[in-house]
Each structure stands twice: as structure tokens, then as C-alpha cells.
TrEMBL record, chain B:
Alphabetically ordered keywords of this record: Amino-acid transport, Cell membrane, Membrane, Transmembrane, Transmembrane helix, Transport
Annotated localization: Cell membrane
GO terms under biological process: amino acid transport
Family: Belongs to the binding-protein-dependent transport system permease family. LivHM subfamily.
Name under which the protein is recorded: Branched-chain amino acid ABC transporter
Top-level taxon in the UniProt lineage: Bacteria
Phylogenetic lineage: Bacteria, Pseudomonadati, Pseudomonadota, Alphaproteobacteria, Rhodospirillales
InterPro entries the record matches: ABC_transp_permease, BCAA_transport_permease
Residues spanning the membrane: 6-32, 44-61, 67-86, 98-117, 144-161, 190-213, 225-251, 258-279
Species in which this protein is naturally found: Skermanella stibiiresistens SB22
Bilayer disposition of the protein: Multi-pass membrane protein
GO molecular function: transmembrane transporter activity
This protein's GO CC annotations: plasma membrane
Length: 344, 289, 426
């Protein structure tokens, strides 16, 4: 039995503890703007973590994860609006729908041996297909949008997920840490080792008797289910859903940025990446505004350049580099086992 | 409904599909040789569209005549991009290439937004509203020019790869990179040339497209996605496949729109894409890897 | 300074006369004002000199075009409103056409001191902003967004000076009947072409609901929806032509309007008219530029600026000064509503005498503005925050200019219906 974060050095554990404490304390000292920004950061950290299960652990590139966000969001919102079923009951339907969708895409893709770019495009195609289909489902508002009744902003009703920003903040914080713990467990389970074997060399994994098809399918289904939970949160946080936005390719791209920038296949990468990217976007906006550059689009240019710079200079992601330099994780050779979680 | 309705719709789809196919051809060439998935392809095409609109607006040059100049411009852009940036990503995994090009695309789209503003712009040609009548067919003049232009450029490109020494070298490089190096080919230069050619093709497709569509920066991601669908349907890396894919998507979208519901027509493209991926993952004319 | 002080005192009694500077006066009244606030609002004591208006618009991303047009309305308001006695300071923010960004930008605006938010052109981004405004108790004045749900979802801080899509379509259809009556010609059949997006589908729903109640002279039109991102509408127009309809009703976005008319010309489809019950597109600058003579005689029944309104003329004049190379008409719709939304906020502030959100909310509920730009009765909000008094005008293109042809009282020209054929134009 391993403890939760045993690849962290003592220093790493202290840093993590402080980080967690700071996050817990945020609503007590931060203003609305900061809470809002960090909520968004945590959302991207959460769905990034979910995506990472499929890509980072099992090596299957999905560019259509907005599909699962949308399915989770629409399923729980529909239950809430049409039948008065609260989100924590609706979550199960959302997860079921997303898992099923993941299973279908995975089965088709893996059965027909579709790999790499082709598999990624298959995921895009399914997401886009679903987007247009939802545009035409009148029961869910179609392209006109699906609206949830607004809750009491001052209240805190965690059962119906209606309430203040602080409530939403703690919910997404809990989800983020929950996902971290789950991923950690997964990585060090039997299936986790299978995934790593497949990621590194599928043929070799097959040769040593791993049921590659089944392992990959499980990765897709877990990833889809986790992502759909992010969708449920989204639905109740924003109170409106448009197929155009929730299923968009743009969203799929957005939500893989954090793990890629943070470090694919690492446990802390998605969280770290999200904490770099959203503040980076805010920082760029602030910089552009204080420089008096009132040019719509200039912010995205800087953001794009920053992305390019990061992938050029930190190809393995920022987190492994930071962790190594600050000695937050054990260096290679320190500890022979449990290297999987944080590849240096 | 009389038959000529169907014929007209199909013919229109075919001609537009040829232009889509040409754009996809550029993408296919790049992938076939450099093995890079150019997620900024639509952006290059839209640069070509703006260049054509500028030429038409300020100098009064027809986009068809501006095409060679635009092609040269885009060639330089593509060549530079490959040499300066993308070259170091050739051996990196797909998702890294993807993020790199997403970043590049973001810079291009928003650069265009700042430079040209958000309003759509068009190249005014005197024959914009003309139609050519052939028997029962009533074809847009612009579409006929654009479609024929696309075919001609595709043919030129094909000849280049078949007959010219550089073209042959590029093909050798695509077939066997190591082998190409061994026989002394400058692979980096050939890659840059290929990327330039792909970008130039996208640029010409952009010029032709300005005859049919008003340009605005936000078109770019749409064209990127469309080019992808076409290339996968036709076969990534296959030149004929790209054209065939373009025509197929063009006609099937037109017919689906006509017979069912226009707003659902791109669902058919994605449906077709999914089917092809499952039944023939290498694409209709692609070779099994 | 003098101008500021003279206009700022809601009582009209300039404190300058007392020999105190504005600042001293403000300090002196602060305590009184605070005390007064406890006992109810005290409009006589201005605590804030200037209202900080956060203007939230999609200035980049896929809605950049209308978003930047709206921004011009905000720019004009910043120049014109202080001159008219409404001291405001505009804080701008770009939503990048993304609801996540809209949300955090709204938070930032409020953080930076915005006392009221104006925005956000699109229903999705507006609801994202509405969430924040609701939580913070800051009023949100919607400039443009027509999803009926916005004022039905239960927000208490939202005010919308823009028709819901059902009001828009209802007014649009009623004006069509007026048009037929005024010209004595009635089409026997119609077809409805619409973009399948939020706006288009809301219009479709409104049309389906209202049509049976309006006793229109033709049967319910067949609806043809198309992808709002479509680059080619040849098929859609061919399909519309195949129905043999005499009247083409459209709900377009911008470029699609151009594509539809261009295809109609090429396919030699000659209906009696192309009418929109209130969508953008056929009065956009680009529409005239690209289509030239073919843009003429297209009709849009939409909320429009009253050419006889003094304020509309002033805004038009300021537009000319600020953007000499562009035409007011091409931007008037987006500018008009954005300007009016800011005016609504500034007016409430003037009456409230304070930017305190609670007081401001109350003042907004009491809004009764008759000095305005767009057609319709005085701006008033019902208990849900909706202004139901916005009227539409029948605007027809003549010589590349949108021209009011109905209602008769404000008409600049007589309507032409049916329109002359495409090929018969000089």
C-alpha cells in the first residue's frame, strides 16, 4: 500500500500542503474576481486531469472531449429542468451517457485499429456530429439554448448545486482534489501499469499478454465519465447551455491546453498547467490594457505566442521542469519504484 | 421536383467541392511528406483570401490573376514557418505539433482581425452575379472559374511531383526519409519546400474562394476543419484522394442540404468521415500504412 | 470642470454658486449623504460624480463584427452623454465571444469599480454576465440579446431594452400586413429561410407560435434552416425557389444575407420581396458594398432609430465626427441600442444621485425615458426587467440606404412592393 504522494520529496509535500491550504482559504480572503478566476482555473485543472487519463496515461489522443462535457451538462440540466431531479442524482445519467459515448467511440476506433491523428479526428467528428444533432433537439432548446432557472445567489444549497460563488468554488475544488486522488490510485493499479505499457509500446504490451483493447477502452470510459462531471458543474454554474459553445472544437482545444502545457502523463501537470494558463491570459489582458493597446485580438496574439514559446522550450511540459528544479519530486535514482506518476 | 433542380444543386456542389479539394490538397501534400498535421491550414488559406481581396480592392486585379503572386507569398510564409519553427517538431508527438500549430493559428487569426477588422470583405469582380447556361444547367460563373482553376492548379502540382527533379526528390523523401538522407538529399530543405508548396496551394485555393465567399478572420478554423474532413475521406497523403474527397463532400453536402435540412448538412460530412474512418481508415484512395 | 459641475447636480442648483469647490462640497455632504442613505435614498446629495459603466462586448472572436459595431455606440456615449448632462466613465471589456471570458471580465469590471454593466450582444455571454451581476447585486442593462429566457430565468438585476425574439417577430409580421395594406398587393405564399443559431431558432419558435394568431394572408411558410457558418447557400436558395413562394422571409446574421440575395440573383429567383422580421444583415454596410444595386428594395422590419428623434440626430452627428469614412445607417442599429442601454444606466444614476447598486437598481426600475433614439414608447421596465414598448419600423433599402417606409408618421419614403426584378435594375 502506497501513500498518496510518495514520489514527492519532503519539500514537495510541504509545498503541496501549503498549496492545498491556500486554496481552501481562498474564499475567506479573495474578492469575487479572484474566486471567479480560480474557479475557472480549477475547472480546467479538473477536466484536464480527466483528459490526461486517456492521453497521458493510455496514450490515446482525443480532440473531442467537449462531447463528454456537453453530454454531462445536458443530461443533468434536462433532468433538473424537466423532472426536477437535482444535479447529484443527474450526475449519474450524465456519466452514463458520456461513458456510453466513450465506449462507442473507443470500441469503433480500437476495433478498426484507428490510431494517432486519425483517432483524434474520429473524436472531433463525433463531437461535431453531436453538436449539430443537439442543434436540432427541440426538447433541449436546440440551437436556441437550454436555460436553467436561476438559484438564490446568496444561499448555499449544495444538494441542488444552487448558491454562492463560494459554494461552486468548493465543489470544483473538491472535484479537482478528488480527481487527483483517483488518478493517483489508477496510475498505481494494475490497469495503470497496463496503460503505461500501451502508451510506451502497444505492440510490446500486446506481446506480453495485455488485453490492449480492453485497457484502452477502460481509459476512454473513465476519462469520459470524469469529464462529464465537469459538464454537470458547467451547466449549474452558468445556467445556460448552447450546443454551439459546449460542444465546440474550441472548447476541446481549450481543455487540453492545461495538461499539455503542464506536462502530459504527470499527476500534477494538469493542475499546474491550468494555474499557468488562466492567470497568463488574465495577465496578458491586464498588460495589454495598461499599455493602452485597445486592439481586440492583441491579447490572443500574445497568448498564442506564449503557447508556442512554451511548447518550443518546455516540450515535456512545465511541471516536470519546475518540480525537478525546485526538488519537489525525487530525482531519478533517489527511489527506484513509483516513477510512473512523474516522469522526469 | 424537376430533375434539373437536382442537377443544378449537384453541379454547384461539385464545383465548390473542387476548391475545397484544392485546399485539402495542400494539407495532404504537407502531411504526406513532412508528416506534420497542419492545424493552421485554414489560416494560411484565409491569408491568401485577404491578399486576393487587397489586390482586387486597391489595384483592381482579378483574384484569378492575383493567384500566382499570392501563391509566391504563401510559399514564403510556409517555407519560413517550416524552417523557423515546425522543423524542430517533426519528431515530436502529435499533440505537441497540434498545440504548436494551434498557437500559430491563434496568432494569424487575431493578426488578421487587427489588420483588417472584423467586417467581412469581398473581392468585387464584374462577373459576380453572372451565370452560365448549359442545357438545363444554370451555373454560377464564379463557381465555374473557381472549379476549373482548382483543377488546373491540382494538375500542375501533380505534374510537378511526377516530372520535376525536385518533385521526385520530395517524393523520395516521403517514401523513405532515411534513404533520402543516405543518397544525399537535403531533407530539411525539401521539407521546407514541401510546406511552402502546401501553403501556396492553400493560398491559391483562398484566391479562388474569394470568388465565392466574403472573407473574415473567423473563417479560418472552419476551413481547417473542412480540409481535414476532406483529406481523411480522400486519404491522407494522397493527391487524387484530396480532390475526390472535396468533390464528394461538396456534392453530398449539397444533396443532403437539398433533400433533408440544410442546417444538418455538415452532419453528413461528419457522418461520412466517421464511416470512412471505420471502413477504410486509410481513406478512399489512401494506401495502407 | 464647470461643465461637469453644472451638469452633475441633480437638483440643478450648481454648488459652484456657494463658493465651495466640488470636492469640498462632496466631503461636506458625505456624512449627510451616508446618513440619508440609511433613511432612504437622497437624490439631492450626489455621492458619486461620475457613473462607472462597464461595457462588455464581444470585440474579438466570431462575434467581433457586431461587437465592434456596438463598441462604437459606447464610444459615442462616452463623448455625447457627458455633454448632455450624464456624467459617465466607460470601462470596456472584450468577451472574446466566449462565455467563460465574459464571466471573468464581468467580475473584473465590477472589481475595477463598474457600478453597472452594459452588454453583451449575445444571449450566452449575457447570461454569463448576468450570473455575476446577480451574485454581486450589480445591475445589468442588456443592449442586445433576444432570447426570451433571459428575463424569464429569475434574475433580479437584469434590465433589457431590447425586444424578445417573440416581440421582434410579432412586430415584424404585423408590419408585413401593414406593408401589404399600404401597397394593395398581397403575396399568396411564403418561405422562411433562417440561420440555425440562437437568434434564428428563437425567431422560428416565435413565428410558429404567433403565426396562427395573426391571420396572415398566406399559409404558414415552410421553414428552411441552414448552418450559421455555411459558406455557400446555393442549396438553401434552390430549395426555397423550388417551393415557388412569392415572399421570402429571412432571419440572417450578416454574411448569409449577402449570400442569399446573391444566390437569388444568380438562380433568377424573383419573389415579390425579401423581408426580414428583425434580423441583422440586410441593412449592414457590407450588404450594400457587396451587392450594390441588388441590395435595393430588400426590407427589414426591425427596431430602428427614429429619424425624427433629436437624440438620434445628435448621435448621428457624433458618429460622423468620430468615424467620418463610415455611414451611420450601417451601424445605427447596434449603436442605437448600445447607446440607449448606457443612457438608461446614466439616467438612473442621475435620478438616484449615487452609484450605490441597491439604489441604482431601484432607480432603474422607475425608468421612464422618452428622449430616446429608437422607435417606440418611453423606456420602461416591467417587473421582470423587460421593456415591452419597443416598436419596429419597416425599413427598405433605396439607393443603397436603409430608409424608413412605415409607420407612415416617420416615413422617409413610400414602400415599394413588389420589388422590381433583379435583371430589370439599372
Amino acid at each position: 500500500m502506497t501513500t498518496l504522494f510518495d514520489q514527492l520529496t519532503a519539500r514537495g509535500r510541504v509545498a503541496l500542503g501549503l498549496f492545498a491550504l491556500a486554496l481552501l482559504a481562498v474564499p475567506f480572503f479573495a474578492d469575487g474576481y479572484l474566486i471567479s478566476v480560480i474557479t475557472l482555473v480549477l475547472w480546467f485543472a479538473y477536466v484536464g486531469q480527466a483528459w490526461n487519463v486517456m492521453m497521458g496515461f493510455a496514450g490515446q489522443l482525443s480532440l473531442g472531449h467537449s462531447l463528454y462535457v456537453g453530454l454531462g451538462a445536458y443530461a443533468s440540466a434536462a433532468l433538473f429542468v424537466h423532472f426536477g431531479v437535482g444535479p447529484w442524482a443527474g450526475v449519474w445519467l450524465g456519466m452514463l451517457a458520456a461513458t456510453l459515448a466513450g465506449a462507442i467511440i473507443g470500441t469503433l476506433g480500437f476495433r478498426f485499429a484507428i490510431r494517432g491523428v486519425h483517432f483524434a479526428l474520429l473524436t472531433i467528428a463525433f463531437a461535431e456530429f453531436t453538436r449539430i444533432a443537439f442543434d436540432h433537439i427541440g426538447w433541449l432548446g436546440g440551437s436556441g439554448g437550454f436555460f436553467l432557472p436561476v438559484g438564490d445567489a446568496a444561499g448555499a444549497n449544495p444538494f441542488d448545486l444552487r448558491g454562492s460563488p463560494a459554494l461552486f468554488y468548493y465543489v470544483i475544488l473538491a472535484l479537482t482534489f478528488g480527481a487527483l486522488a483517483l488518478c493517483r490510485r489508477l496510475l498505481h493499479s494494475r490497469i495503470g501499469y497496463f496503460w503505461l505499457a500501451i502508451r510506451e509500446d502497444q505492440e510490446a504490451a500486446q506481446a506480453v499478454g495485455i488485453d490492449v483493447f480492453r485497457a484502452k477502452l477502460i481509459a476512454v470510459m473513465i476519462s469520459a465519465a470524469m469529464t462529464s462531471l465537469g459538464g454537470v458543474f458547467y451547466a449549474f454554474f452558468y445556467n445556460n447551455l448552447f450546443p454551439e459553445q459546449i460542444f465546440s472544437v474550441g472548447r476541446s482545444i481549450e481543455l487540453i491546453l492545461a495538461p499539455v502545457i503542464g506536462g502530459i502523463g504527470t499527476l500534477f501537470g494538469p493542475i499546474f498547467g491550468a494555474f499557468i494558463l488562466t492567470p497568463l491570459a488574465e495577465l496578458v489582458t491586464w498588460g495589454v490594457e495598461s499599455a493602452g493597446l485597445d486592439m481586440p485580438g492583441i491579447k490572443q496574439i500574445f497568448y498564442g505566442l506564449a503557447l508556442v514559446a512554451i511548447v518550443v522550450y518546455r516540450p515535456e511540459g512545465v511541471w516536470p521542469w519546475v518540480a525537478r528544479h525546485l526538488r519537489l519530486v525525487h530525482q531519478p535514482g533517489d527511489q527506484p519504484s513509483h516513477r510512473a506518476g512523474d516522469r522526469p | 421536383m424537376p430533375l434539373d433542380f437536382y442537377l443544378n444543386v449537384a453541379a454547384g456542389g461539385l464545383l465548390t467541392g473542387l476548391v475545397y479539394g484544392l485546399a485539402a490538397l495542400g494539407l495532404s501534400v504537407i502531411f504526406g511528406v513532412v508528416r506534420i498535421v497542419n492545424f493552421a491550414h485554414g489560416e494560411l488559406m484565409v491569408i491568401g483570401m485577404y491578399a486576393a481581396v487587397l489586390a482586387a480592392g486597391s489595384l483592381g486585379i482579378d483574384p484569378l490573376l492575383a493567384a500566382p503572386v499570392v501563391a509566391a507569398l504563401l510559399f514564403a510564409v510556409g517555407y519560413g514557418l517550416q524552417r523557423g519553427l515546425i522543423n524542430r517538431f517533426i519528431d515530436r508527438p502529435d499533440h505537441m505539433q497540434f498545440i504548436l500549430l494551434v498557437g500559430v493559428a491563434m496568432v494569424i487569426v487575431n493578426g488578421l482581425l487587427i489588420a483588417f477588422g472584423p467586417d467581412s470583405q469581398s473581392a468585387q469582380v464584374p462577373y459576380a452575379f453572372d451565370a452560365i447556361e448549359i442545357g438545363p444547367l444554370l451555373l454560377d460563373t464564379t463557381k465555374v472559374y473557381a472549379g476549373v482553376g482548382a483543377l488546373a492548379v491540382a494538375a500542375l502540382l501533380f505534374l510537378f511531383f511526377r516530372l520535376s527533379l525536385t518533385g521526385k526528390a520530395i517524393r523520395a523523401c516521403s517514401d523513405n526519409q532515411l534513404g533520402a538522407r543516405v543518397v544525399g538529399l537535403n531533407v530539411e530543405r525539401l521539407y521546407a519546400l514541401t510546406f511552402g508548396l502546401g501553403a501556396a496551394t492553400a493560398g491559391i485555393a483562398g484566391c479562388l474562394m474569394t470568388l465565392l465567399v466574403d472573407v473574415r478572420p473567423q473563417l479560418a478554423p472552419e476551413y481547417t476543419l473542412l480540409s481535414f474532413i476532406i483529406v481523411i475521406v480522400g486519404g491522407l497523403g494522397s493527391m487524387g484522394g484530396a480532390l475526390l474527397g472535396g468533390v464528394l463532400i461538396g456534392i453530398s453536402e449539397a444533396m443532403a442540404g437539398f433533400l433533408i435540412l440544410p442546417s444538418m448538412k455538415s452532419m453528413f460530412s461528419y457522418g461520412l468521415l466517421i464511416l470512412v474512418l471505420l471502413l477504410r481508415p486509410q481513406g478512399l484512395l489512401g494506401k495502407r500504412p | 470642470m464647470a461643465k461637469d459641475a453644472g451638469t452633475n447636480g441633480p437638483t440643478g442648483l450648481g454648488p459652484m454658486g456657494s463658493g465651495l469647490t466640488r470636492r469640498d462640497f462632496g466631503k461636506a455632504t458625505l456624512a449627510v449623504g451616508a446618513a440619508a442613505a440609511v433613511f432612504g435614498n437622497a437624490p439631492a446629495f450626489a455621492q458619486d460624480k461620475v457613473l462607472k459603466v462597464g461595457v462588455l462586448l464581444p470585440r474579438s472572436g466570431f462575434l467581433a463584427q457586431p461587437g465592434q459595431a456596438c463598441q462604437r455606440g459606447a464610444d459615442i456615449a462616452q463623448t455625447l452623454l457627458p455633454q448632455l448632462g450624464f456624467p459617465i466613465e466607460i470601462l470596456g471589456a472584450d468577451t472574446e465571444s466566449n462565455p467563460d471570458v465574459a464571466r471573468s471580465r464581468t467580475e473584473k469590471l465590477i472589481q475595477d469599480g463598474a457600478q453597472v454593466i452594459v452588454g453583451a450582444f449575445d444571449s450566452g455571454q449575457t447570461t454569463a454576465a448576468a450570473q455575476v451581476c446577480e451574485q454581486r447585486g450589480v445591475p445589468l442593462v442588456v443592449n442586445i440579446a433576444s432570447a426570451p429566457q433571459l428575463t424569464e430565468q429569475g434574475y433580479r438585476t437584469i434590465f433589457r431594452n431590447f425586444p424578445t425574439s417573440s416581440a421582434l417577430v410579432g412586430n415584424g409580421l404585423a408590419l408585413m400586413k401593414d406593408l401589404f395594406a399600404a401597397t394593395g398587393k398581397t403575396p399568396k405564399s411564403a418561405v422562411f429561410l433562417h440561420a440555425n443559431d440562437t437568434f434564428g431558432q428563437a425567431n422560428k419558435a416565435a413565428l410558429d407560435k404567433l403565426f396562427p394568431t395573426l391571420s396572415m394572408p398566406f399559409a404558414a411558410p415552410e421553414a428552411i434552416s441552414y448552418d450559421p457558418k455555411a459558406q455557400d447557400l446555393a442549396v438553401e436558395v434552390a430549395k426555397a425557389r423550388a417551393t415557388g413562394a412569392e415572399l421570402v422571409i429571412v432571419t440572417t446574421r450578416a454574411n448569409d444575407a449577402i449570400m442569399i440575395v446573391r444566390e437569388m440573383v444568380k438562380q433568377r429567383f424573383e419573389p415579390m420581396a425579401v423581408v426580414s422580421p428583425g434580423s441583422p444583415g440586410m441593412y449592414d454596410e457590407q450588404f450594400y458594398k457587396v451587392l450594390g444595386k441588388y441590395s435595393d428594395y430588400c426590407i427589414t422590419n426591425l427596431p430602428w432609430y427614429d429619424p425624427k428623434s433629436a437624440l438620434a440626430q445628435q448621435v448621428g452627428k457624433t458618429f460622423k465626427e468620430k468615424f467620418p469614412s463610415d455611414r451611420y445607417e450601417g451601424y445605427a442599429f447596434n449603436i442605437g441600442f448600445t447607446f440607449e442601454a448606457i443612457l438608461v444606466a446614466a439616467d438612473a444614476f442621475k435620478r438616484a444621485g449615487t452609484g450605490d447598486p441597491a439604489v441604482l437598481l431601484d432607480a432603474l426600475r422607475q425608468t421612464n425615458l422618452s428622449e430616446k433614439i429608437m422607435f417606440g414608447g418611453p423606456i420602461q421596465f416591467d417587473e421582470k426587467g423587460q421593456n415591452n414598448a419597443i416598436a419596429s419600423a419597416c425599413v427598405q433599402n433605396f439607393k443603397l440606404r436603409p430608409t424608413v417606409v412605415l409607420p407612415k408618421a416617420s416615413a422617409e419614403a413610400d414602400p415599394v412592393f413588389p420589388m422590381p426584378g433583379w435583371q430589370k435594375r439599372a
